[in-house]
Amino acid sequence: MDTKPNLRREMEGRKQNIPAEEVLSYTKSVVTRLFGRSGTFAGVHVFTPSADIPDDFGTGPRLVLLSPSCGYSSGSGDLARSAAEEILRNRGDQPRQRQNRVIFLAADSDVVSRLKDQVRTALSWKSIVEDIDNSKLNLDLFQSKLAKRNSDGAEPVVFQLVKEAYKWLLCPCEEMMPGNKPKLNWETVAISPSAPNVMQEIANKLKEEEWVIFEWAPVHLHQLLNRWYFKDGAVEVPVQKVWQDCCNYLYLPRLLNEDIFVNAVTQAVNTQDYFGYAAGREGDKFLGFAFGDHALVYLDGSSLLLNHECAAECKKKLESEKSSVPQPPASGPGVPQSTPTTPSGTPSPTGGTAPIKKTFYGNVSLDPVKAKLDFATIMDEVVQTFTSKPDVAVEISVEIRATGNKGFDETLQRVVKENCNVLKFKPAEFDE
User: Which of 17, 104, 228, 356 has a 20 to 30 A CA-CA distance from 58?
Assistant: First the structure.
């Protein structure tokens, strides 16, 4: 009697009994292997609950892959858009602040059913091979080899169907209507399933569609400032606020990272065509002022951008003050030379020099409750003193040690590990 059909019936029988959660888990593992490389993104989140998707500025936007049950089609994408909007607006029970840092990838509704069916097939063949290996299923040599061959061939088909399914990029944006609240729109574009590097293909699409700005000309920043900030008599705005607003609000440009923003500011203040920059203010005086000069731009709460008229007036005032200051007499033959002195005021020994110190090391413990504020103060008062010098290399290490008397549950461990991975902690482990 021919036993070949029995193997097929065995597979079909198992296929009908595979639970939906097992199908989703296998699909997630394949999707993660295919899309798991961060590349342009600060993180890639596969079928991740909104509460576990960080709400931060990040080193890039975050790519969120929606569950296959939230498919998209060109005719009707309501399920995908609804699921994406829930993640866009909320992080768990809290409102999401950095809404302009998330982009979504959805599966094509027309491919999802074929994908699920192929996943069930792959799981069925896999279970048959496992039972053969564990002597739970008695088959002849021919059928055993056939089962193994079918199992090996099923997974590549799943990978191909995942590439065909997950092709819809969904990008949220808003239009500002006069007198009305911003209106949420979803822009969509399909990526090619035949692309050799799917993550690079996504990055290319984001750049082509200008959904993510990889290079920003100063003129565009100048126009943004004039439209949203330098109006109603306002002549200055904190640098940090503009960057953070670009991360928060969907009607502003979505920049790849803060370096793109800082570079645009640096290029702009190097000329007198756009706006000025100041590292801070002391009364009526701008500190570290630059307008048509090279500036070391700080992305903090003290630094300011000044509109063109204000910057030009400050520049003129500084040049006027400089021209009115008497110049010191030039040194030369017949001009008495001052004697070098020590800090105490006594003359320093002729030819004597103090040893040059080339290395600094400091260690400080922070209160975990107000560590964010304290760390910001350290950056402003200590680190920036070094980084303002072009020939000084600064290295900062952060060590975190947390001990829980009752241990840490799996949810907390998962969230912390994911966030540490995104932030490039090395190492970041839980111990007993």
Answer: 228
C-alpha separations of 199 from 70, 71, 212, 213 in Å = 21, 20, 14, 17
- Percent of the chain exceeding pLDDT 90 equals 63
Q: What is the reported pLDDT for 371?
A: 63
Cβ proximity of 224 and 252 under 8 Å: yes
SS3 string of 220-248? HHHHHHHHHCCCCCCCEEEHHHHHHHHHH
Token pair of 232 as six digits? 């109603």
Strands 166-175, 102-107: parallel, antiparallel or unpaired by DSSP? antiparallel
Residues 6+ apart with CB under 8 A from 146: 4, 7
Angle at 422 between CA 420 and CA 426, to 5 degrees: 50
> CA-based Rg of the chain, rounded to a whole angstrom?
30
Asked if pLDDT for residue 311 goes beyond 90, the answer is yes
Q: How far apart are CA 98 and CA 186, in angstroms?
A: 17
Closest CA to 61 of 41, 89, 91, 39: 41
Of 37, 91, 92, 85, the closest CA to residue 60 belongs to 37
The overall longest dimension of the chain from CA atoms, in Å, is 121
CB atoms within 10 A of CB 351: 6
Q: Which of 430, 302, 427 is nearest to 377 (CA)?
A: 302
Q: Which two tokens stand for residue 183?
A: 């209106």
235-271 CB burial, b ≥16 within 10 A, e <16 = bbbbbbebbbbbbbbbebbbbbbbebbbebbbebbbe
User: What phi and psi values does residue 55 have, to the nearest 5 degrees?
Assistant: -110, 80
In this prediction, residue 113 carries a pLDDT of 96
Tokens of 135: 């002597």
What distance in Å separates the CA atoms of residue 153 and residue 159, rounded to the nearest whole number?
11
**What tokens appear for 264 in the block?**
């645009």
Which tens digits make up the pLDDT trace of 50-94? 999 999 999 999 999 999 999 998 777 689 999 999 999 999 999
